[in-house]
């Protein structure tokens, strides 16, 4: 069923997406536990692909528009879409890890930013504000609210924290396809856009710079960096709108052991 261009999922379909989401969340938890100085993002990528396939899933990103890996691994001033490589992570880095899992024909998409060893106070604050902005945005994903209430939820928390929301990268609907309508900016006035209803499923993903909001695309055609070279963070959940409130389908913050 559609509402405008937005695909509405049944309760049963949301449960199927949650099965994909559980694999995704466990994958991110595993990867964050591996994030120590000396490990390369290529090692993380291999571990992610092995894990996802061992659970009967498929890494959604691999081959998507030609992307060569199963995760995006974006250190420091790289915001998103980093291609894993053999460079070792160092003490004090922050690393954003984004992964998609397709399972039973449904996609789950989520991301976290993790510290590598001890990090600066600035890095800690960036991660904590960006993570909080995701939870504040998700709290708006309720029937009767408007789409831009989610956007505004991100922006308010990020800007109150003295950080910058990236304007040119957006969240999105998710379901059988990784990218469905609508696009979900991380800024905007509340009370605008489509009315939310049960069965809408969104990938909500604040992307935040310590410095200005500008970003640039690297010559590799994938990696996106903050223009001013400042640290960046990215947190994302796949979330279903339900009559009982927001349901996080990729609960990397919960104990899934
Ligand atoms: Mg996404």
Structure write-up:
- With 257 residues, the protein is α+β, with helices and mostly antiparallel strands.
- It has one domain (2-248): Creatine Amidinohydrolase (Alpha-Beta Complex), CATH 3.90.230.
- 27% of the residues lie in helices and 27% in strands.
- The chain is built from four helices and 17 strands.
- The protein has helices at residues 11-34, 41-54, 121-138, 147-160, and strands spanning 2-3, 6-7, 58-59, 71-75, 78-80, 94-103, 106-115, 164-165, 171-173, 180-184, 201-204, 207-209, 215-217, 224-226, 232-234, 237-242, 245-248.
- The protein has a five-stranded antiparallel sheet with strand order 10-9-11-16-17.
- A hairpin with a 2-residue loop joins strand 1 and strand 2.
- Helix 3 (121-138) runs antiparallel to helix 4 (147-160).
- The mean pLDDT is 97.
- The protein binds magnesium ion.
- Magnesium ion binds next to loops.
Secondary structure layout:
Layout lengths: L1 E2 L2 E2 L3 H24 L6 H14 L3 E2 L11 E5 L2 E3 L13 E10 L2 E10 L5 H18 L8 H14 L3 E2 L5 E3 L6 E5 L16 E4 L2 E3 L5 E3 L6 E3 L5 E3 L2 E6 L2 E4 L9
Antiparallel strand pairs: 1-2, 3-6, 4-6, 5-14, 6-7, 8-12, 9-10, 9-11, 11-16, 12-15, 13-14, 16-17
The protein binds magnesium ion.
Features:
5-stranded antiparallel beta sheet; 257 residues; alpha+beta; binds magnesium ion; single chain; 4-stranded antiparallel beta sheet
Give the structure's gist in a few sentences.
The chain has 257 residues and is α+β, with helices and mostly antiparallel strands. The protein has a single domain (2-248), classed as Creatinase/methionine aminopeptidase superfamily (Creatine Amidinohydrolase).
